[in-house]
Write a structure and sequence with these properties.
Blueprint lengths: L5 H10 L20 E2 L9 E2 L7 E2 L2 E5 L4 E8 L2 E5 L16 E5 L2 E4 L5 H20 L13 E4 L5 H4 L15 H15 L8 H9 L50 E7 L12 E3 L13 E4 L15 E3 L2 H4 L21 E2 L3 E3 L5 H8 L4 H12 L3 E4 L4 H10 L1
Parallel strand pairs: 7-11, 10-14
Antiparallel strand pairs: 1-3, 2-3, 4-5, 5-8, 6-7, 8-15, 9-16, 10-12, 12-13
């Protein structure tokens, strides 16, 4: 059961401004956590933390007033999920099995996909880091390097990248998995709240919202148009976020609109390594440690109904998805070619902040070849490296004037 208290919600939005830590590696640990009510809410959605002894997770709006960024997070209870699809599910692909089980911990999940309005704050950080470099400010040292992020230069052909998803309330698209990871680190440091990408299991659990069928509402494909922007509806691009009904958890666009990044490596042979097992935490996670294919979920506005099922998966292809990028090496932050213009992201937040060794895997690059490309592109001036933090918001505000 979920509950929500408006008064507590307002208080907790304001409490966001208290959540400024010395480091986002332990974000929300040292202050009143936004999205947590001490008292059991009288109405609306909520998730008890440790049976209510540590409070109740409630919906909240993260506000970064200096940038105009705000987005909603929805509490999702923990539970056991069977990942993948059964052999007889219509439209099934072989990479959706063999099935296995994962015990999912409670978490907050973005109510919608990340919009351009949100992602542009990260993009503008390039200008801040460039100013800092010229002024010799906020230099990266051995003691603060673990806090550093990289950001790309502005999009060279923005109209191409945003052709099918253009307005501030459309989902941001064409970012690489690495760029999505760095966005969540940036967001965590400027907000003081620890955000990250979901695992495949977390994503599928959130998409199913308790349903064992192909879709969050069951198996009657006739109902799909109520929940999904997908290929059979003659779309010419993505819709603004939350244009369709939410699932039972209160999440919009888990089916269709744009594919969404997960933290994992894609393996075309499916879940051979996890087959028949039951995992807890991140034990069954296939971390992205090789160039090439990482996993996106959910389908897009151009996908047929079978590709927007909860179990549907797709692997990225750096060479094909960067085929229109004239640079060598191609950008570590942006793809240029379809279907990448139909790929976006959604953020999640664990009920309890992850420890440094855990959150590092969600934020940092672990692919040796990609690190070589990052070093090269930054040396060429095609990206910037710097230290984020709450003070960055004021610098972004100055740039926006």
């Amino acid at each position: 059961m979920f509950r929500f208290d408006i008064a507590a919600f307002v208080v907790l939005v304001l409490a966001n401004w208290i959540c400024v830590q010395t480091s986002a590696w332990t974000a929300d640990n040292n202050a009143i956590a936004i999205g947590v009510s001490v008292e059991r809410p009288a109405s609306g959605p909520f998730v008890p933390i440790d049976g209510g002894r540590d409070g109740y997770m409630i919906p909240y709006t993260q506000v970064l007033a200096e940038t105009g960024i705000q987005f909603e997070m929805i509490p999702v209870p923990g539970g056991l999920i069977t990942i993948g699809s059964p052999d007889d599910e219509p439209g099934r692909s072989s990479d959706e099995g063999p099935q296995f089980q994962v015990e999912i911990a409670p978490m907050w999940v973005g109510k919608t996909e990340v919009t351009w309005n949100e992602f542009e704050g990260f993009m503008k950080t390039h200008h801040v880091f460039m100013r800092r470099a010229k002024a010799g400010m906020h230099k990266i040292t051995a003691s603060n390097r673990m806090d550093a992020i990289t950001v790309p230069t502005p999009l060279y052909a923005a109209s191409h990248h945003r052709e099918f998803s253009n307005s501030s309330q459309h989902p941001a698209v064409t970012m690489t998995q690495y760029s999505a990871k760095q966005y969540t680190k940036w967001l965590s440091f400027v907000s003081g709240v620890q955000y990250r990408l979901p695992t495949e299991a977390e994503w599928e659990y959130a998409a199913r919202a308790g349903s064992a069928g192909p879709y969050c509402f069951g198996d009657n494909v006739v109902e799909l148009d109520q929940y999904a922007v997908y290929g059979s509806t003659l779309n010419e691009g993505a819709a603004v976020v939350a244009s369709k009904q939410p699932n039972a958890f209160g999440l919009h666009d888990m089916h269709g609109n744009v594919w969404e990044w997960t933290i994992e490596q894609y393996r075309s042979q499916g879940y051979i390594e996890q087959a028949g097992k039951r995992f807890g935490g991140f034990d069954g996670t296939q971390w992205a440690q090789k160039m090439g294919r990482q996993c996106v979920r959910g389908g897009s506005w151009d996908s047929p109904s079978e590709r927007v099922r909860s179990a549907s998966r797709m692997g990225s292809d750096r060479e094909a998805w960067s085929s229109e990028d004239p640079e060598i090496p191609t950008s570590p932050w942006w793809y240029t070619s379809d279907p990448a213009r139909m790929v976006g992201m959604r953020v999640v937040r664990s009920a309890s902040p992850l420890q440094t060794d855990e959150i590092k895997r969600f934020w940092e690059n672990e692919i040796v070849e990609l690190q070589d490309d990052l070093n090269h592109t930054i040396q060429e001036g095609r990206g910037r490296e710097g230290i984020p933090g709450p003070e960055l918001l004021q610098e972004l505000k100055q740039i926006s004037k």
